[in-house]
Amino acid sequence: MASTNQSPFYKKAEENFLSAKTDEERLNWLEEMIRECPKHKSSEKMLANLKTRRIKLVEKIERIKKSKKSSGSSQETIKKYDMQVALIGETNSGKSSIISSITNANSKVSENQFSTQIPIQGIMEYSGVQIQIIDLPSVKNENFDVGIANTADLNLLVITELSQIEEIKKFIPKAAGKKLIVFNKIDQLNEKEKRKISENLRSKKYNFIMISCRNKQNVEELKEKIFQSFNITRVYLKEPGKSPTDKPLIIHPNSTILDVAKKISKQMAQNIKGVHIWGPSSKFPNQKVGLSHIVKDKDIVEFKTR
Ligand SMILES: Nc1nc2c(ncn2[C@@H]2O[C@H](COP(=O)(O)OP(=O)(O)OP(=O)(O)O)[C@@H](O)[C@H]2O)c(=O)[nH]1
Ligand SMILES: [Mg+2]
To answer: Which atom of ligand 1 lies nearest, measured to the CA of 137?
Structure first.
């Protein structure tokens, strides 16, 4: 593009245009060039040329946007954690309210329909592990991301009426992970209504929980249920004569006392003199066990070393 007789503003815009890294930036500087291009006879051709380039660039940007959308997933922008949970449901069921209550994320909550337009991610820190929670646009939103629902380890089906379960399932026929029904807004129900719903869900053998984001009822229990669905074993270590640590050691299910010791350190594993346990895997508190004893979630383990 000949720019010898152009204003310094035009030249600056052209420089920026040439060094721009994205098409959006290019479009921005191209528009600046069009504004700065003199509007007299001698530069008519040049102006027309710039405008044609702008039309082509806009078309290109639109084309890329469309193809990104039709690939149907934002997995490229949201990187999957080892433990991923997705919130699935109809508009207004309270998905964004839930992610805002159980994670550090701040997802827009509104009484209007279809407030969430892109997947929002939050991290739930619980018992020393990080679980990724994703708030998805509602199943009937054109931006609903079935890709995330399909690969999540756990899908929370957030409902406010029983009939919504079957409705939601139609949108996620290929979801591979576990499912947990989260019946929200129970602050709006009386005791009899709540009992009826819980009996219904139990009779259908659903894994479910009934909560209220409004008055925080069962929100802690929801966190625990999410955590437990990952089949993680927490072991609280204890030194003789002291109380157990607050932060558990996280290990695989069916681990032995020796696995626990090795996780602490190799050296420690070689110097064990005696082991005592309290909690779910013990027959009685302070039971003496051997190295092949299998621990259970929430056990307390005390090692005596040489
Ligand atoms: N009474 C009551 N209202 C709730 C509760 N949880 C959420 N709400 C309200 O329900 C409305 C919808 O909540 P959202 O969290 O935005 O719902 P959503 O499922 O994210 O909706 P979309 O993003 O449109 O799919 C808001 O007005 C919330 O304040 C609850 O436990 N009880
Ligand atoms: Mg929402």
So the answer is: 25
Domains delineated in the chain:
8-70 (no CATH), 84-228 (3.40.50.300), 233-305 (3.10.20.30)
| Residue bearing tokens 């026929």 | 173
Distance between Cα 185 and ligand 1 center (Å)? 8
Ligand nearest to the CA of 120: 2
Amino acid 75: pLDDT? 47
Query: Is the CB–ligand 1 distance for residue 217 below 6 Å?
Result: no
pLDDT of residue 289: 97
Q: With 0.85 as the threshold, say if the pTM is over it.
A: no
CA distances to 23, 47, 61, 126 from 54, rounded to whole Å, are: 11, 11, 11, 51
Task: Measure Cα distances from 70 to 143, 146, 182 in Å.
Answer: 10, 12, 30
User: Does the CB atom of residue 184 touch ligand 1 within 6 A?
Assistant: yes
Which of ligand 1's atoms lies nearest the C-alpha of 135?
A: 20
Instruction: Tell me the per-residue pLDDT of 87-123, one tens digit each, with 9 for 90 and over.
Output: 999 999 999 999 999 998 988 999 988 999 999 999 9
Q: Is ligand 1 within 6 A of the CB of residue 111?
A: yes
- Which H/E stretch holds residue 8? helix 8-19
